[in-house]
Amino acid sequence: MKPFLLLASRDDDVAADGEHAAFLRGGGLADHELHRVRMEAGPLPRIDLDDYSGVIVGGSPYCSSDPEEEKSDAQVRVEKEISGLLDEIVERDMPYLGACYGVGTLGVHQGAVVDTTYAEQVSAVPVTLTDAGRADPLLAGVPDEFRAFVGHKEACTVLPEHAVLLASSPTCPVQMFRVRTNLYATQFHPELDAAALVERIRVYEDSGYFPAGQSQAVIDEVSRAVVTHPGTVLRNFVLRYGR
């Protein structure tokens, strides 16, 4: 099998390595089956998409809807490089799964409105599949309603007309969508289990993903949550496109 490409942009090593491990574990992938590029660390190396089964974009501290003057040089560069790579990915309809920050990257690239209207603090939220979601192969084995881990400062407010809404939640109408046949983005995290999320909460406890001083309460809440189905999306992606 050709490896999958993981485009990461977390500048904290604990968070970055935890995310990498979560995608390996959740996707049932060996180390050599997931090639990670930490985009925040330096310019994107030359990428030959023919070398990969598909592309995965992890979460990020970046928000695509931030005012341009507030973005760091690294964020501006990362956004430009991902957009350039997405030109080819979309043209080829290459397998793509963007988790959380994937909504900001694929969504903005395709003309969606992404802003802070439907931000969600770190929690487990109820997600419901649309009719299109029930028929989509990446959601095979996922019930019509399930709980998923979220935590984001921006989300998709308006999808482009050519995108297909696959899943929604009461507090965030766009939880998963598809473009063309093989390009997917989820607002929820298909790679996370409770232990991995707790580690991430501790890393980002002062970053505005929940009220200040509430990290232990958030940890207690997500630790009690029963979240079992989002990982099926990641596993289905690997099984469907691994080649």
From TrEMBL:
Keywords annotated in UniProt: Glutamine amidotransferase
Pfam families per the UniProt record, alphabetical: GATase
Highest taxon above the source species: Bacteria
Entry GO terms, CC: cytosol
Location of the Glutamine amidotransferase domain: 38-192
Chain segments annotated as transmembrane: none
Gene3D superfamilies: 3.40.50.880
InterPro entries given in the database record: ChyE-like, Class_I_gatase-like, GATASE
PANTHER family: GLUTAMINE AMIDOTRANSFERASE YLR126C-RELATED (PTHR42695)
Protein name: Glutamine amidotransferase
Organism (species): Sanguibacter suaedae
